[in-house]
Amino acid sequence: MTYIFYAIALVMSFLIVYLLIPPFSRLAFKLDFVDKPRKDLERKLHREPIPLTASYAIFIGFFITYLAIEREINWETGALFLGGILLLTIGTIDDWYKTKGKDFPALPKMIVQVSAAVLVYLSGNVFTGFFNPFSGEYVVLPVILQFILTILWIFGVTTVINFSDGLDGLAGGLSAISGMTLFVVALAMGQSNSAMMAIILVGVTLAYLRFNKPPAKVFMGDAGATFLGFLLAVIALDGAFKQATILSLFIPILAIGVPIFDNIFVVIKRFLQGKAIYQADASQAHYRLLRAGLNHKQALIVLCLVSTCLGLSSIILMLVQI
């Protein structure tokens, strides 16, 4: 695929989301589908009601662009679409609960996220194994292990991106950086489908960031954050994890490194303190940076710089492998 198609996809996805967010925001105010400030929660940092509808613009922008460019519907595309619908639906329910000052139970969200991951597995987008660096042979993992690792990867990345959505511009910024990293990796590996999905993801997140940069005018809510995490996980499976060596397995992990490493730390801390590991709180890195004295923009810049460094590290690691 020529580079012009990637450029078209980037611009097209950006424009669709950029044009759709304002009308969806107006609809959110009419329906009272807004995230209201709460002084009793440390992680609620905004002071005005914010629309929670950017997720729908992101979803529409991604799939319209992808189908317009690729012009092909197969099992993998169907699984990606249905999985996205599932996440958008349960995320919307969760976001609606939040507009009423209530918390939606974690179990239904987990079940839906796992179900979306299973759809991807059944479509054939699977982590099958890796190349043995000593023998040069491809090690095919047992089917049960392929299933477990694929589901854990998709569920894990979906979750950590959602957990990172606590600061204006953060989840979108980290997703854009990770998407660009995976785009470069996919191009170098000759994975055109993965590269196309990655550059479209970059386009939709950049458009979203035009409205979500501090101070945010719109949120994507759990619906959008889980969808972006789901996309990143699938893109990595379709590209960076294909024909991987033991060393190159770290490429997608580094590409999405900030939310992965931060939330591993958070989960371990919650477990040791006897807290529910899936319950939202203010223990992520961005909250710790704010408590350390940084303002919102400074905390955002620090974490995006770290993410960029990790992304560059993953690209260097990939180049060493070629």
From the structure above, extract its key features.
322 residues, mainly alpha, two-stranded antiparallel sheet, 12 helices, 69% helix, 3% strand
Reconstruct the topology from this structure.
Elements: H1 3-31, E1 34-35, E2 50-51, H2 54-70, H3 75-99, H4 106-122, E3 129-131, E4 138-140, H5 143-163, H6 170-189, H7 192-212, H8 221-238, H9 250-255, H10 257-272, H11 285-291, H12 296-321
Antiparallel strand pairs: 1-2, 3-4
Helix pairs in contact: 1-2, 1-7, 2-7, 2-8, 3-4, 3-8, 4-5, 5-8, 5-10, 6-7, 6-8, 6-12, 7-8, 11-12
How would you characterize the overall build of this protein?
- The protein is mainly α.
- It has one domain.
- The chain is 69% helix and 3% strand.
- It has twelve helices and four strands, in the order H-E-E-H-H-H-E-E-H-H-H-H-H-H-H-H.
- A two-stranded antiparallel sheet has the order 1-2. A two-stranded antiparallel ribbon has the order 3-4.
- Helix 11 (285-291) crosses helix 12 (296-321).
- The longest helix has 29 residues, at 3-31.
- It is globular, with a radius of gyration of 19 Å.
- 48% of the residues are buried.
- The model has no long low-confidence stretch (mean pLDDT 91).
